[in-house]
């Protein structure tokens, strides 16, 4: 048996699959369990793991941060790639 630790911005809930069985901290109800939620920030990101909108307001496109590195994740369901405009 080994003791594991969730990375910054993640917490264990037994159902997580973001990184090493951990889930985003905002998706976990820790109840009375205590954990260190101190942010370790990098430019543009509060935590080392998380989802951040590309701009302000309601967004359909976001950045996914993994180990303090930003990976652009395009989930814009309103863009032209999802539609066949050929006539």
SSE topology:
Blueprint: E1 10-12, E2 22-24, E3 50-53, E4 62-66, E5 69-73
Antiparallel strand pairs: 1-2, 3-4, 4-5
Describe the structure.
This protein is an all-beta fold and 87 residues long. It has a domain at 10-28 and 41-80. Helices cover 0% and strands 23% of the residues. The chain has strands at 10-12, 22-24, 50-53, 62-66, 69-73. The strands form two sheets. It has a three-stranded antiparallel β-sheet, with no helix packed on it. A two-stranded antiparallel sheet has the order 1-2. Strand 4 (62-66) and strand 5 (69-73) form a beta hairpin. The termini are far apart.
- Helical percentage: under 10%
Assign the structural class, choosing from mainly alpha, mainly beta, alpha/beta, alpha+beta, or little secondary structure.
mainly beta
End-to-end separation? 61 Å
Shape: globular
The poorly predicted ranges are: 73-87
Radius of gyration of CA atoms, rounded to a whole number? 16 Å
Strand order of the largest sheet: 3-4-5
What's the story with the biggest beta sheet? 3 strands, antiparallel
Question: Tally of extended strands?
Answer: 5
Mean pLDDT over the residues: 78
Number of helices: 0
- Our estimate of the beta-strand percent is 15-25%
Order of helices and strands: EEEEE
Task: Please outline what is shown here.
With 87 residues, the protein is mainly β. Helices cover 0% and strands 23% of the residues.
